[in-house]
Amino acid sequence: MTTTKKNKDWYSLSSTEFQTPPPRPEGTYLEDRSMLTMRVMEKYSKGPQKGLTTVNVDFNPDRQTRIVLGMCPEWDPGFPPYNIAKLAGVVKTAGYHCKAFDMNVLAYNDYKKNKWDIPFNPWDGPRDWHWIGEQYWKDLHKFVKPVLDLEIEKMVAFAPDVIGFSLYYCNKEPTDYMIKEIKKQLPNVTCVIGGPNTHYSYFKPDPWYDIVVNGEGEQPLLTLLNQIDAKIKVESEETFKNTKIIRQDEKERVNLNNLPFPDYSDFPMGSYKFPNGALCAISRGCIAKCTFCEETHYYKYRQRTAVSVFEEVEHMYYTHGTNVFYFTDSLVNGNLNELRAFAEGIISSDMEISWTGYARCDGRMDDDFYRILAKSGCVALNYGTESGSQEVLDAMDKKVTIEEMEANFRSGHLHGVGAMTNWIVGYPNETPRMFEDSMTFLWRHRNNSLVVISSGSGFSVGVDTIVGQNFDKFNLQPFYYYDHWITKDFTRSIAHQIVRLKTFSIFSDQIVSKEHIAKPTRHNLAARHYTIEYLDDTIQNEVDFNYKDFNYNIISTGISNFADALVNDVWPLWHALWRMRGGFKMNLKFNYEWEREEWGERNAAPVNADLFFEIDHDGNWSADFDWSYDQTHIDFEWTEDWIDTQMQNTPRYQPVGPVYQLMDFTRDASSAAVRARKLAWKGDARFKDRDAWDAWKFDEYLASERIFAENRDRDFSFKFKWKNNGQWLN
């Protein structure tokens, strides 16, 4: 009889106390153990990949240049920043004077200690929009400023020649504040910016950034420090106004195996949510090319050897007492042989660690593979599940089947490897039935060591994605509606997205499981957005994907495709709950102001509704709906003689308004955009023999402009009341 192993709770590891490093083995025992470990790993490891670029880290004790590296909030305060620690390790190994700062964890601990007077946790994922743009200055800066100011004093006292910051979408405002304040006191300091935000095609450097590094940062940072130290001009092939841009070659892949270990000597290691934790990386890039993903185009994939990863883990274990590791690369299982070799190496060593990391569901990972992972200390894998619908997965080019995903969840549960899950709600081809498939998948695996349900803010089109580089292929209009994509038939938009985001969150709250599942912390929803009462709250029906013929188009408004799709988007939630938990009655409300408070300005839409729905165990239902969609700025007047300076000052249609905006990503020419574009064009006869680096075509732009002009005054506003009843069959 097979018994299920009780899995360790990943989040319980954050409650452990900081421990001092264990004594490092010595003498003959160490030699024998090391030899055994290497032999075990050699069985699976294939050694370094070919065609990699080695970073030249030449030590020189006479270096004079001083550099500060910093990480501003907001990011996960669970672990010290790996990117900053890796760069610190590189520049210190080269002989440069470096000091690293983590303002993120300092601000987080200040929030916890001083109980900031705000009604939300700023480090809670669904609240990240409070850190962006004007919202940051309105909501958070007065609390964050004292922390930043204190660290600015320390940075200035260090007297750096160079300051370097890692830029994310949700830490730009505090980062910019620090740079400006430092430059007031050190006007000659050189500011270097890197990080994920600089990879985006739409990223434009601000004047206070002197140098931007786009791509892997180790070699460019060393090169510019060498130039500054030698008092020669920093070279760059590209500039934006006065900012120099150092862009990594599209085809280059840095060898990760011989980089110095990360340097954490400046970080308060016991102050993080995981006091014995650290981040690590097994690879860079991703083997997949999912159509929604920007990150996969940042770097070309390459895998560290198992030995290289093992040695870093061993270094952290005996140097810092680190026994909890979070692998932050796009996926830990891009190379199953190297992952197996690493796991076998940990098992054969004396180290007792717990670890997790991002992963793809993969049919090649069988029961035995999960057994080895669990034995090596793998507590959970953080899957990019995205959807429970095969059609949606295929549109995303996930190259995995629902059957393989379910097998992974069952195998993980059997051996105690939990499943953290990430979902993309509202993909362009996602029908109501496909949306319900995701809820069905979650319910079916609620007791298979499901650890986390994370849904973010739904699907959005990135410039550097395959979708973004071929709107037409994915049935999207060449314009945005409320700063979001909209389908050609107008049945999917930000308005429909908010209905699915909200109902998905409500559904996750209704999942009943044997073990705790971390879910999106949207307490406001149950507080005022909905009420629900079950006829028998003990019912937990096991369900299958056997509702393919269910008709979700129950309501016909006679108004528009937009309205029909919107008012019918609530049925997947209710149909799923009825199948799983039996009869219930619910009052569900949509309120534009409430949605803005919950999801942020950009992710809300002017949807207002008061919906009553009741159904018994036998499927007899009644509904009473009051819908109102109130599109804003309907009286906006377009400027017909608008001048596009990029088209020889020719008068064109004004492309941007408060609701509609013409989109054109073909002018973007970052390495990530070009990589995505090549894949988006693949197999499309329209782009045969086209140069992906020179993608913009005037005639194609005019065609998109005409479509935009025909639709930019379209008003989807409507009011609709509906009462009806019916019966659903099992």
Describe the structure.
This protein is of the alpha/beta class and 730 residues long. The protein has three domains: 1-19 and 276-423, Alpha-Beta Barrel (TIM Barrel); 46-247, Response regulator (Rossmann fold), CATH 3.40.50; 470-486 and 501-730, no CATH class. The protein has a seven-stranded mixed sheet, with helices on both faces. A six-stranded parallel sheet has the order 8-11-12-13-14-15. β3, α6 and β4 (190-194) form a beta-alpha-beta unit. α10 (367-375) crosses α12 (402-415). The longest helix is centred in the first third of the chain and has 18 residues, at 141-158. It is globular. The mean pLDDT is 92.
The gist of it:
By secondary structure, the protein is of the alpha/beta class. The chain folds into 3 domains: 1-19 and 276-423, TIM Barrel (Alpha-Beta Barrel), CATH 3.20.20; 46-247, Rossmann fold; 470-486 and 501-730, no CATH class. 32% of the residues lie in helices and 17% in strands.
Please describe the structure with a list of short key phrases separated by commas or semicolons.
730 residues; alpha/beta; Rossmann fold; 6-stranded parallel β-sheet
Distance from N terminus to C terminus (CA atoms, Å) equals 34 Å
Task: Catalogue the unreliable spans.
Answer: none
The whole-angstrom Rg is 27 Å
Backbone structural class: alpha/beta
Q: Tell me about the largest β-sheet.
A: 7 strands, mixed
Describe the strand arrangement of the main beta sheet, using strand numbers. Answer: 2-1-3-4-5-7-6
The structural domain count equals: 3
| Strand coverage percent | 15-25%
What would you call the quaternary organization? single chain
Number of strands: 24
Tally of helical segments: 20
* Percent helix: 25-40%
* Mean of all residue-level pLDDT scores: 92
- Shape descriptor reads globular
